[in-house]
Amino acid sequence: MTNQDDMPTKTRRKTAAKKGPTQRATKRAAKRATQRTTRKPAPTPPPARKSPAGKAGPVNEWMELRGSPIHGLGAFARKAIPKGTRIIEYTGEKISNAEADRRYDDEKMRDHHTFLFIVNTKQCVDAAFNGNEARFINHSCDPNAETFVIRGRIWIEALKDIAAGDEITYDYMYEDDPKYTEADLRFYGCRCGAATCRGTIVNTKRKLEP
What we know:
The chain contains three helices and eleven strands. The protein has 210 residues and is of the alpha+beta class. It has a domain at 57-187: Beta-clip-like, CATH 2.170.270.
């Protein structure tokens, strides 16, 4: 994606002065400039609201929420979902990474349970505020869905055909750190039950023993 601010400006060319049209153009330009300077500032967006508690039931055409053997509420296919189907958008409050660090300090948390999702190197989405039901989709080391970001929006898409009634999961792929000890990896523990389960939601090649 190309940021317009990063695009080169067009070269400006000199033109011969034309009295009549130039005067009219100047007046129009002055009027537009006045309109710009007197335009009201954009309204301040309303403060983010804490996301409501999850509730079992249908969410959209493709998924519903109900109790999960992996963790709490989970998302399940209401009907067969073909591979490549865009199931739901992951929504929430967009915040800076610094604000995310301020809100959530892993070292002070007994259990790691956040709804943070990285958008880019500067921003992430916190689904604990302004979030939707996508935040209840659980992690699996053998997922049937995947996530991708397009134009700053996070989407969850079927990685393979998903049968009706199957739990919808994706790999959270938490960033690994060479300094992580086994205790650190277990802090971000995984209970997906897959044969390939690595024992942690951290995207690491290390596999923890049960």
